[in-house]
C-alpha cells in the first residue's frame, strides 16, 4: 500500500467510523429497547411500530450523509485524493522514466475532473450501502425474532465488510488514476509505445502475465497506446485499468521500437 492509497483509505475509514458511531448511538439502543416486543411477537407481526421507529432512525442517518457538511466532505476527500495521485504519478514518472511535464494538457484536466466526480460517487456510496445493509440486517432479524446480541454481532460483521470495500476502493482507484495519468503524461511527452511490466509475483493474473511476455511486432510486452491489449473479457486494457491491477507502463521511444522492428525482419 503506497502513501496515496494509505491516506485515501484512512479518510474513507474516518467516514465509516462516523457512520458506525451513529449506528452505535442510535440504532443499537432501539434494537435493545424493542427486544422484548419483537422477540415475543407472533409470526413476525409488528404490534407497537418498532419497525417504523427503526426505519425512521436509519433514514435520518442516511439524510445526514447525503447533505450539507458531509456532502462537502465527500467532495473534499475525492479532490484531495486525485490531486495527491497526480503529484505522486508525476514524481514517479520523472524519477523512473525522466518524464517531466510542467503543464497539464486539456486531456489531463478533463480526466482529473472525471476522476474526482467518479470518486465522489464511490465515496458517497459507502455510507449509503453500509446503512442499507444495516437496515436489512436489523429489520429482517427483528421480524425473525433474533436476540439483540445476535443482531449486533451481524452488524459487526457488516462493519468488517464495509471496511474491506473501502480498502478495495482505495487500492483500485489508486491504481486506475495512477495508470491513466501515466498514460496521458507519456502521450503528452511524445511516447506512442509502452512496455507492459507486471509485478513479478504470484498474485499477477495469468492474462496480465501473458500480456507482459507476449512478443509483439514492437518488442516483448510492447504495445501502442492507441492499440491496447485485450483482457479476458475481450476489453481493451492498460496497466492499472483492470481491477486490482499493479502493473505499470514503461515508456518506449519510437526510435527504439523502430530499431527492434528492423532487426526482427
Description:
With 265 residues, this protein is mainly alpha-helical. It is built from eight helices and five strands, in the order H-H-H-H-H-H-E-H-E-E-E-E-H. A hairpin with a 2-residue loop joins strand 2 and strand 3. Helix 1 runs parallel beside helix 5. The longest helix has 41 residues. The two termini are 43 Å apart. The mean pLDDT is 89.
Name its key features.
265 residues, mainly alpha, 3-stranded antiparallel β-sheet, two-stranded antiparallel ribbon, 5 strands, 6% strand
Strand order of the largest sheet: 4-1-5
Helix count equals 8
Strand % is 5-15%
N-to-C order of helices and strands:
HHHHHHEHEEEEH
The dominant shape is elongated
Distance between the termini: 43 Å
Unreliable residue runs: none
Largest sheet: 3 strands, antiparallel
Averaged pLDDT: 89
**What Rg, in angstroms, do the CA atoms define?**
24 Å
Amino acid at each position: 500500500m503506497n502513501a496515496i492509497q494509505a491516506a485515501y483509505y484512512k479518510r474513507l475509514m474516518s467516514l465509516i467510523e462516523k457512520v458506525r458511531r451513529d449506528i452505535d448511538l442510535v440504532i443499537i439502543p432501539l434494537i435493545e429497547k424493542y427486544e422484548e416486543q419483537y422477540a415475543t411477537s407472533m409470526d413476525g407481526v409488528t404490534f407497537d411500530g418498532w419497525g417504523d421507529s427503526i426505519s425512521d432512525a436509519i433514514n435520518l442517518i442516511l439524510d445526514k450523509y447525503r447533505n450539507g457538511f458531509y456532502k462537502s466532505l465527500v467532495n473534499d476527500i475525492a479532490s484531495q485524493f486525485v490531486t495527491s495521485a497526480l503529484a505522486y504519478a508525476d514524481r514517479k514518472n520523472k524519477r523512473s522514466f525522466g518524464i517531466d511535464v510542467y503543464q497539464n494538457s486539456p486531456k489531463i484536466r478533463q480526466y482529473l475532473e472525471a476522476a474526482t466526480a467518479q470518486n465522489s460517487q464511490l465515496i458517497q456510496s459507502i455510507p449509503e450501502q453500509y446503512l442499507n445493509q444495516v437496515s436489512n440486517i436489523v429489520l429482517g432479524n427483528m421480524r425473525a425474532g433474533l436476540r439483540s446480541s445476535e443482531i449486533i454481532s451481524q452488524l459487526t460483521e457488516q462493519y468488517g465488510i464495509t471496511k474491506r470495500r473501502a480498502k478495495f476502493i482505495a487500492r483500485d482507484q489508486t491504481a486506475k488514476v495512477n495508470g491513466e495519468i501515466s498514460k496521458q503524461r507519456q502521450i503528452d511527452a511524445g511516447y506512442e509505445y509502452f512496455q507492459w511490466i507486471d509485478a513479478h509475483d504470484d498474485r499477477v493474473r495469468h492474462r496480465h502475465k501473458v500480456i507482459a511476455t507476449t512478443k509483439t511486432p514492437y518488442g516483448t510486452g510492447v504495445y501502442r497506446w492507441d492499440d491496447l491489449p485485450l483482457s479476458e473479457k475481450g476489453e481493451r486494457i492498460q496497466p492499472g485499468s483492470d481491477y486490482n491491477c499493479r502493473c505499470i507502463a514503461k515508456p518506449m521511444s519510437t526510435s527504439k521500437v523502430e530499431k527492434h522492428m528492423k532487426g526482427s525482419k
